[in-house]
Amino acid sequence: MDGILALSRGKKLRTLSSDAFDLLLTQSISPLPLHKALLLLETIETVGNPSFRRHQLLALAKALVSSISNLHFGPEVGVSPPNLILL
Q: 3 and 18 in contact (C-beta within 8 Å)?
């Protein structure tokens, strides 16, 4: 599903496949929030209660666009400075 991005301290962050990553706007999400969002997505899909899964995915999608990513909305969609939010 996703690739792994190696950090200098030996820790590995999850990331999207290169094809999926190419679909994103450049710098639209920082590596750590992306890693945490991918872990949360995996948890929702594997451990989450199926009765609530659609609601959880909708909440994650809203959070990704509104507060986790580096996107901002005005007359056009833009990319703001890196977001250092720690989910």
A: yes
Closest by CA position to 26, among listed 86, 80, 73, 62: 80
What is the span of the domain harbouring residue 33? Answer: 27-79
Q: What is the mean pLDDT of residues 9-28?
A: 86
Q: State the burial class of residue 35 (Cβ atoms within 10 Å of its Cβ: 0-12, 13-18, 19+).
A: buried
Residue 11 lies in a domain: no
Task: Output the six-digit token pair for 85.
Answer: 């939010």
**Residue written as token pair 């990553």:** 21
d(CA 72, CA 32): 18
Which pTM value belongs to this model? 0.77
